[in-house]
From TrEMBL:
Gene3D superfamilies linked: Tetratricopeptide repeat domain
Lineage of source species: Eukaryota, Fungi, Fungi incertae sedis, Chytridiomycota, Chytridiomycota incertae sedis
Domain named Glycosyltransferase 61 catalytic: residues: 381-587
Provenance organism: Chytriomyces confervae
Classification via InterPro entries: Glyco_transf_61_cat, Glycosyltransferase_61, TPR-like_helical_dom_sf
Protein name as annotated: Glycosyltransferase 61 catalytic domain-containing protein
Pfam family of the protein (one): Glyco_transf_61
Sorted UniProt keywords: Glycoprotein, Glycosyltransferase, Signal, Transferase
Length: 663
């Protein structure tokens, strides 16, 4: 029933009441206030009004979803769940309601990057139960059925999801070509998460051939990128997809596309600065090191079969301070654009356009000069520590701390999206900047406008990549310049020193010299990790320190600062290797197929060594490793021992000769 119908019914029911004001008019007024507040993103006000409507018209089902959505966007996800639960409990036989509930949850789970985690508020099983019920109530409804499969995927129940998708295709696959392509696309995603790359590739290609849209092209790139190491096809499909997508953007908005020409994508700030010096300028921050080669042709050591594809040598990137006139940022990764040009920065063709909006959006005017450190996956520890944070450090040094730039504001991730971000930005090291922070909120709906210009720090690899490790490699976009690793290391080491917390690193101190990075209950962890840790503890005693990731930030740094060997499986925690003792070794079980070589790159940047335990079965990108056997634990223990002896023998005479600064 629509609102008017309900209001009429209500007005009739209460028609005899001696109300001062016609209740129907009153409720209509509340409803329009609610809608207006929602449109203005005043969620507190919207919630208040939808709540009033709920009290007055408790039988209006749609209003529960209005209220829940307002809670959700207002950041009160717990309350959103309360309202959703209330309505499905109240109408237990209503298939449409259950299905709506299910798709709201699926869309929550599917938010790109920096958003809430519904799992924190509600058990997966409880969420699933509602969707299972929806299917039972409406067994012939294709939409309800596929929502269940999508939700199962998001809850990591891949096998169950795949069998529902397959069944869906059998039952409904002939009905509507577009819906079927949609289902195949969703199935592709599930297959990738389940590690079925061959079938995912086949399916993505099939959909793309039927409908060569940029999104379908991107899907092919995505499957190749996750399933095949340094894959040229992935790179080419991705590049074309980005170009095609951007070229198709709407040019009718004169504010963001002044000259009303076609949109274009700019992959390289320094090239742009040459082409359009009136719009962009760059200054090189590392003239001494740019384009120099680093790496070690004899590293890594493979304990087990050698991997044929393995990058070892790299060019240092050009690091630039970039100034863009009349810029905008929007979307989750804070995509920078100006006058129908979209800048990808260092993420190059691997830019994430999922949440970019070319259409009208709310514009937030920033009437100051500003800098931004917003980027793809900011809340992931690796991306925060090695990409976003160092950009802030460089901006501080080269711009924000300089005389004449006191007015410059700083666009930072909003509070609460990640503990590591909050912890860093709360450090006294940023006391002098904090009053200039502007949080980047509601990025999917808001466009930030910088009429006074925007500065960023960014880096770019050379097209003339003689080592062929950075160019045409989708993952290398996330590998920062060598210098950046050292910058982050010094920043945190200095932080420890200034607090008198820097550990003493005498050659005879062996406590905590081996750090094992635990990944319990998560992707790419061992199901029997506890047994492994037990074994390693017995073997190495006090020399072993286990890192769980829940330690306070500087404590984490301190733990790794003592490390001579860092061990674990492929995951963001290994990034802490950059804090380890000079010349430290990294020992890890790579994923299989190994597609992201960032940790090998980190080792090269820090001039360390690494050991890849390829004899121990790794999992694919989204998978869980197999249970470790006793003999595999011994292999790991032996490798750690060898690595440690190696580091100690190379460091004979003390660490001083390797790194004066640190002592
Ligand atoms: C970016 O442009 C510079 C020239 O300004 C060039 O040297 C470099 O190779 C380019 N890199 C890429 C990836 O386009």
């Amino acid at each position: 029933m629509n609102i008017l119908g309900l209001l009429t019914a209500l007005a009739l029911a209460t028609g005899h009441a001696a109300a001062q004001q016609d209740p129907r008019e009153l409720l209509e007024a509340i409803y329009s206030n609610a809608k207006a507040a929602y449109a203005e993103r005043n969620f507190v006000e919207a919630v208040k009004n939808f709540e009033l409507l709920k009290t007055n018209i408790p039988e209006w089902k749609d209003n529960y979803f209005n209220l829940a959505t307002a809670h959700l966007y207002g950041g009160s996800i717990g309350q959103a769940f309360e309202v959703l639960d209330e309505v499905v409990t109240k109408y237990p036989e209503d298939a449409e309601l259950a299905s709506k509930y299910c798709s709201i949850i699926a869309s929550m789970l599917n938010q790109p990057n920096d958003f809430v985690y519904p799992e924190r508020y509600k058990s997966s099983q409880a969420m699933l139960n509602v969707c299972i019920k929806a299917v039972k109530l409406a067994p012939e409804d294709a939409q309800v059925y596929i929502t269940l499969a999508s939700l199962l995927t998001l809850l990591k129940e891949y096998k169950a999801a795949i069998s529902i998708f397959d069944d869906w295709l059998l039952r409904f696959g002939h009905e509507n070509a577009e819906a079927t392509r949609g289902a195949k696309n969703s199935l592709t995603e599930t297959l990738v998460r389940n590690g079925d790359y061959d079938r995912a590739f086949e399916l993505a290609l099939e959909v793309f051939e039927q409908d060569p849209s940029p999104e379908n092209r991107q899907k092919v790139a995505y499957v190749r990128k996750i399933g095949w190491p340094i894959d040229l096809m992935a790179w080419e499909y991705q590049k074309e997809s980005v170009e095609q997508m951007v070229a198709g953007y709407d040019t009718s908005n004169p504010l963001i596309c002044k000259t009303n020409k076609q949109w274009r994508v700019a992959f390289n700030y320094s090239q742009e600065a040459t082409l359009h010096p009136d719009k962009i300028s760059v200054s090189l921050l590392n003239p001494e090191t740019a384009y120099k080669t680093y790496g070690n042709p004899n590293d890594p050591v493979f304990v087990g079969p050698e991997l044929k594809i393995y990058p070892r040598m790299y060019h240092e990137r050009w690091i630039h301070l970039v100034n863009i006139q009349d810029a905008f940022i929007s979307g989750h990764p804070g995509i920078i654009h100006s006058d129908c040009t979209l800048y990808t920065g260092s993420h190059h063709v691997n830019t994430d356009l999922q949440s970019f909006r070319d259409k009208e959006t709310e514009i937030r005017e920033i009437p100051y000069r500003a800098v931004s450190i917003i980027q793809h996956q900011t809340r992931n520890y690796y991306h925060w520590m090695l990409e976003a944070l160092p950009k802030l450090l460089l901006l501080k040094k080269h711009l924000l701390d300089l005389q004449g730039y006191e007015d410059v504001r700083i666009i930072v991730p909003e509070k609460g999206i990640a503990g590591c971000i909050d912890a860093t930005l709360n450090m006294p090291e940023f006391d002098s900047l904090r009053h200039r922070f502007i949080p980047y909120t509601l990025p999917t709906n808001t466009r930030y406008h910088f009429p006074k210009g925007l500065h960023v720090v960014d880096w770019i690899h050379p097209l003339d990549d003689t080592h062929q490790t950075l160019h045409k490699n989708l993952w290398s976009a996330y590998w920062p310049p060598r210098e950046i690793h050292h910058l982050v290391r010094s920043f945190f080491h200095d932080a420890l020193k200034s607090r008198n917390r820097f550990p003493s690193l005498s050659p005879n101190n062996h406590v905590g010299e081996i750090v094992y990075v635990s990944r319990l209950n998560t992707v790419r962890g061992f199901p029997n990790e506890a047994e492994l840790l037990e074994y390693l503890s017995q073997r190495f005693g006090e020399r072993l320190q286990i890192h769980t990731g829940s330690e306070e930030q500087l404590e984490q740094v301190a733990i790794f600062t003592r490390a001579r060997v860092v061990a674990g499986t492929h995951g963001a925690g290994l990034m802490n290797y950059i804090f380890a003792q000079p010349g430290a070794a990294l020992v890890f079980v790579p994923m299989n197929p190994l597609i992201e070589f960032c940790f090998g790159h980190i080792v090269s940047a820090m001039e360390g060594t690494h050991y890849l335990l390829t004899s121990i079965p790794g999992s694919h990108y989204h998978g869980i490793y197999e249970t470790l056997s006793k003999s595999e634990m011994i292999v790991m223990g032996n490798t750690i021992e060898t690595a440690l002896e190696d580091v100690l023998s190379r460091n004979e005479g003390g660490a001083t000769e390797l790194d004066h600064e640190e002592l």
